[in-house]
Amino acid sequence: MKQTILITGGAGFIGSHVVRLFVNKYSEYHIINLDALTYAGNLENLTDLDQSPNYTFIKADIRDAETIDAIFEKYPITGVCHLAAESHVDRSIAEPMAFITTNIIGTVNLLNAARKAWTGNFEGKRFYHISTDEVYGSLGSEGFFVETTSYDPRSPYSASKASSDHLVRAYNHTYGLPVVITNCSNNYGQNQFPEKLIPLAINNIKHMKPIPVYGKGENIRDWLYVIDHARAIDLVFHEGKVGETYNIGGFNEWTNISLIHVLCEIMDRKMNRAPGTSASLITYVKDRAGHDLRYAIDATKIQKELGWEPSLQFAEGLEKTVDWYLANEEWMDRITTGKYQAYYDQQYHKR
Length: 351
Ligand code: NAD
Ligand code: DAU
Known about the structure:
The protein has about 350 residues and is α/β, with parallel strands linked by helices.
């Protein structure tokens, strides 16, 4: 079936992989990538799609309700994959307001526009909200997040995402809007902005700069290769049941410090350094305020109901990721200058 799909946040890390997958896989669809191009949005992530006839980029801000309504009036949108968000926990701790306006109000603007455009004809329509496992809070050493785990967000970022999840469900319950939600664990892979742990560590190791490890490095995250998340998004968009939530995770838990040690070994090898050279850069710094101890997803539902599972082992995914960052120095250099450098100095020199 011909569809017009609006993907928000498509110039960001995960969004760019989703846009590429949809544009290349579904030549019969018209894919519209809507992105405000904040510090985290980078059209360089998608230059390979410049000549694709089924792809349109629109620079727009989801906080601007009039513009969002106008886009729904102009294009016969049949589906939304909503990824646009402020996404970095540390930034949410430093300055929460952008998280409230983009993640909550921006989401409501999209819900309102879809509701207006689709009212009376929800047949074949779908509003897919991409969310995070952080809405569930923090685990102790045991247990997993399942779809029915109570919400307990603990940072301004996760609270804003939890709020948007509730609003998406409320529009389904109240107005019948056909929604679906996924909550995913930590993604890694190419094109991730170097404020996040893995690309930040790769970049610092490359330049022989200290690797900042928060607290004791004992916090645990469940890592998933970004292309596997994009594959899950494709599956849920097409086959997920309306009104349902699916958790997505990597079945792949690591303490931050063990992960950093693996990265250090890979980097020593790739950069022809003596073993232990990169690990000597590990520097313990002041902990993140309210730092969640452990996230771990039970992804049994999406596995059983939709047949999804991660395709890549972590060791292979990390190698590929390091290779990409080392081969794409210019991509990294262009975004680690200017404003990003000012953020980095503020974030790490006060610790
Ligand atoms: P990202 O920060 O790399 O990209 C976000 C994109 O949204 C950028 O292109 C940015 O320009 C755009 N954007 C921000 N504010 C906007 C606005 N007001 N209007 C329009 N566009 C705007 O984020 P990411 O890591 O790719 O995450 C994408 C989504 O997936 C987010 O909703 C995030 O909560 C969710 N998620 C991320 C992870 C992860 O590990 N990165 C895990 C689970 C869920
Ligand atoms: O769980 C999904 C979430 O994963 C997404 O919703 C978020 O958008 C995404 O940013 C990510 O959040 P985290 O806070 O887990 O990711 P981050 O890469 O910022 O940090 C990973 C872990 O590493 C965390 O325990 C904090 C720690 N850390 C992070 C940085 C940036 C450090 O020790 N040092 C650092 O410099």
